[in-house]
TrEMBL record:
CDD domains linked to this entry: PGDH_4 (cd12173)
Organism expressing this protein natively: Pseudomonas reidholzensis
InterPro entries, per the entry: D-2-hydroxyacid_DH, D-isomer_2_OHA_DH_cat_dom, D-isomer_DH_CS, D-isomer_DH_NAD-bd, NAD(P)-bd_dom_sf
EC number: 1.1.1.95
Domain D-isomer specific 2-hydroxyacid dehydrogenase NAD-binding, chain residue ranges per copy: 121-297
GO molecular function: NAD binding; phosphoglycerate dehydrogenase activity
PROSITE patterns, alphabetized: D_2_HYDROXYACID_DH_2
Domain D-isomer specific 2-hydroxyacid dehydrogenase catalytic as annotated: residue spans: 32-329
Keyword annotations: NAD, Oxidoreductase
Domain of life according to the entry: Bacteria
Protein name: D-3-phosphoglycerate dehydrogenase
Length: 348
């Protein structure tokens, strides 16, 4: 029976809050194996083959090439039962391949929601009040007036949220406290659910046309890649602000540069990139109207602690045969439970 075996959890040596290791150390029957990303491929594969759980980075550029949880890798890991992501995103996981293989996928949705929401609002304020731009100019030159850096208030402006899940709902609450009108486009929710989350439901075209600020809070899926492109940026209001704290690839970086450089958009706050970190000569980094972060919207002490603790606790729950609170593919749980209880670890 699996329940009598040591449950082995594999993770790479990306930064984790120490609480994750502590939770596993305090729980009998669990072994956490942290492997260097620089280790020889065969050593990494050997450690993964001996593991029941793959604790995988959510950020694509933190994961070494070849270790994405896809069909090719899973075929080499017949003992694997579960893939758990560090954060809410699962860009590094082929969800369909895991589901076909009977592997349960977990995430930590909500662990960094408050942190990301605060960062998104911070970027909106920064862009609208030109705070970073003013700071840079004050450090570099003289001979300009304060009016050269005149910004705008967010009060009584319209915020358009593309996606209003855990993070978007928190952004909506803070925005309303600032006196903003909030609209949202989320095809996965009903009009009533969007309203309950704090916004007026609209279609994407209406959101782009009416919003003074457009902020993305949706996952990276086939239908959302390059959602914001030349055509959709053109539908935004003249002088509007664009914010992306969700995922790289949701906006076309070339199209965004063109919309900003032409003066059509008034500013952008970008936390996520096609390549992270972006190269130093990235065109967007040369624009004064861009406030740039290095995928740090969710990187706070509080969020990192929650992510580490939640991940460990959820793994312990499911490996004890109990449903986890954040199962991405819950339909797999019966098959996962069968393999867990019978010791049949043949996923494919």
């Amino acid at each position: 029976m699996m329940s009598a075996e040591t449950k082995r959890v594999f993770r790479f040596d990306v930064w984790y809050h120490p609480i994750m290791a502590q939770v596993f150390a305090d729980t009998p029957g669990f072994e956490l194996n942290t492997v260097a990303r620089s280790a020889p491929r065969q050593d990494i594969l050997q450690a993964l083959r001996a593991s029941h759980v793959y604790q995988i980075p959510s950020a694509r550029d933190e994961l070494p090439a070849g270790w994405r949880a896809d069909a090719e890798l899973l075929a080499q890991l017949p003992q694997l039962l579960c893939v758990s992501t560090n954060g809410a995103g699962y860009d590094t996981v082929d969800l369909e391949a895991c589901t076909r293989a009977g592997l349960l996928v977990l995430n930590q949705s909500g662990a960094n929601a408050q942190s990301v929401a605060e960062a998104a609002i911070g970027l909106m304020i920064d862009c609208s009040r030109r705070i970073s731009e003013s700071d840079r100019r004050l450090r570099q030159s003289r001979g300009y007036s304060r009016e050269h850096l005149m910004g705008s208030e967010l009060y009584e402006k319209t915020l358009g949220l593309v996606g209003i899940g855990e993070i978007g709902t928190r952004v909506a609450g803070i925005a309303r406290a600032l006196g903003m009108r909030v609209v949202a486009y989320d095809p996965g929710l009903t009009v009533e659910q969007v309203r309950d989350n704090g916004a007026v439901a609209v279609d994407l075209a209406t959101l782009l046309a009416e919003s003074d600020v457009v902020s993305l809070h949706c996952p990276r899926l086939a239908e959302t890649v390059n959602l914001m492109n030349t055509a959709t940026f053109a539908q935004m209001r003249q002088g509007a602000i664009f914010i992306n704290t969700a995922r790289g690839g949701l906006h076309d970086e070339v199209a965004l540069h063109q919309a900003l450089a032409s003066g059509h958009l008034g500013g952008a706050g970008i936390d996520v990139w096609d390549q992270e970190p972006p190269p130093l000569d990235h065109p967007l980094l040369a624009l004064d109207t861009v406030v740039a972060l290095y995928h740090t919207a969710g990187v706070t002490r509080e969020a990192r602690q929650r992510m580490g603790q939640w991940a460990a606790q959820q793994i312990i729950e499911v490996m004890a045969g109990r449903p986890g609170p954040r199962m991405v593919n819950p339909q797999v749980f019966p098959r996962f439970l069968e393999r867990l209880q019978t010791g049949d670890h043949s996923a494919l």
